[in-house]
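Aim 2 progress update. The chain analyzed this quarter is reproduced below.
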Amino acid sequence: VQQSKMDFFCKLGYGKQDICKVLENLGQEALEDDVLKELIRMGSKPQALESQAQPSQLKLVARGSCSTTPGLKWLGDDGSDSSDSLRPIVIDGSNVAMSHGNKEVFSCWGIQLAVDWFRERGHTYIKVFVPLWRKEPPRQDSPIADQHILEELEKQSILIYTPSRKVKGKRVVCYDDRYIVKVAYEHDGVIVSNDHYRDLQNENPEWKWFIEQRLLMYSFVSNRFMPPDDPLGRHGPTLSNFLSKKPALPEKRWQPCPYGKKCTYGNKCKFYHPERQHQAQLSVADELRAKTKVPLALGKEEERCRCSP
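Predicted structure tokens:
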């Protein structure tokens, strides 16, 4: 009998020591109700309730088999965050530098202005391509201004030199435009240049579409890099949508009706009527029909009331 009572109260969650004390006080023949009342009077709680009362200290474990340090950002090979919403930028360094130097001087300061403009917008992947022979000392036929900027951008892993060499005193230069289009195409980025790359468009039809849709032209206004607000024309996307991977949808704006309150199209009018916000936009004919039906209906109801006993 004692063992059965012990098992019963242990299933309820009470400790064996408390049960033994109560049975010694009340006797082995005590009823279960009396034992339970005594346990409650002693203030002993079931172990299950005690475990619920204690706040459990949860340990956050990062998902994955190899992740040991939480909050670690995984970067791609290009060093840009995978969650970045801005497109990679590939700059035609020769085109930008010559444009800033009025096609007379290779102005490296123009490249710096373009890089700073995209940095301020938050772009993390910026690459500038320049031929290797631009590292050589400037000559009279090819003057270079602010050549130290190229070294600084190269240290920052922004500027990349396209290969070139000399063979029997003649310079052999690789086509840097092909580097620019290929890298921008592979990274789904934007090409910054005023060149149309027509020769490369004829080589590859995929490049042709990419150059037409992802070429960002620019202008320099008083040492200020200024791309257009509508890179693909007046009816194309805005500059912010053009440079972002997930363009924001434009807000739907209704054009007000030129006729105003004199408009007779009713609900068929495609323009916006501010005076019809809280009323159904019915046509003029439907409004007249509705007005004529109301008095007719009232007259019929009055006749029915007169005829009814």
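The longest strand covers residues 126-131. The chain has three domains: 1-42, 89-243, 251-276. These observations will guide the mutagenesis experiments scheduled for the next reporting period.
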